[in-house]
Structures are given as structure tokens and as C-alpha cells.
Amino acid sequence: MIQRPVLWVLLLAMLLIPLGILYQMLIGLEKSVKNLQPDIVLITIDTWRGDGMSGYGQSSISTPNLDSFAKHGIQFVRAYAPIPTTGPSHTTLLTGL
Question: Does an H or E element contain 77, and which?
């Protein structure tokens, strides 16, 4: 017959081992979710029309750094401002309201 202290140790091990495995699985899941978050860089320029950049078809103005950045990311062709002034427009853009 199994001694009472040995039985308690076995019972405790049977409870703690699955909890440890579950904990390790949750930590791995948390790390993989963090890797799924996109990297977002928002560039806003006050009072500069989009067609004043070489990436949008202007050949007389050179903007090589912005063009390179857009080439490796996403460049929007159409953007609409909810308000024609900078402060409220940025507020709307950044809050979604």
C-alpha cells in the first residue's frame, strides 16, 4: 500500500504538471500574438498637396526618401479629410471620431 505522504506528492504532481504545461502554452500564445501586430507609421504633412511629391506623379520635385518608404509599404492614392483644417482633421484621424 502507498504511504500517505507519497500519495499527496503524486496527487500534487498530477495537478501541477498540467498547470505548468498550460502556462507554457499561454506564454507561447502571447508571444505569437505580439508578433501579429502590424507596424504602422503615419506621416502627415500640413498644407502640402499629394501631387506635389514625386511618388504621386510630380516629376519636377524629388522626394526620394518618401518614395522609398512608400515603395516598401502602402501608399494611398485617395485620402479625404473630414475637415479642411489641420488640427481638427488630425484629431479625427487619430481618434476615429
Answer: none
